[in-house]
Amino acid sequence: MQPKNTVNTQRLLILLLLVAYVFSPTVFNWMVSPNGVWYRPFLVWLLVIVIAYLFQGRSQNGQ
Length: 63
What we know:
By secondary structure, the protein is mainly alpha-helical. Helices cover 81% and strands 0% of the residues.
């Protein structure tokens, strides 16, 4: 049986993946918009890195 913390992390990860799947067309269109600023794609990658860091920190604290 898995620890409760691992199950909660997996549920959160599945929810985030579902939200990313639903909103990916909108985010992609926003990123590549010719009227946008040059650093928009970098904002998306920064968000991905921050989320990965938070998940990593949370999983290390639980072990």
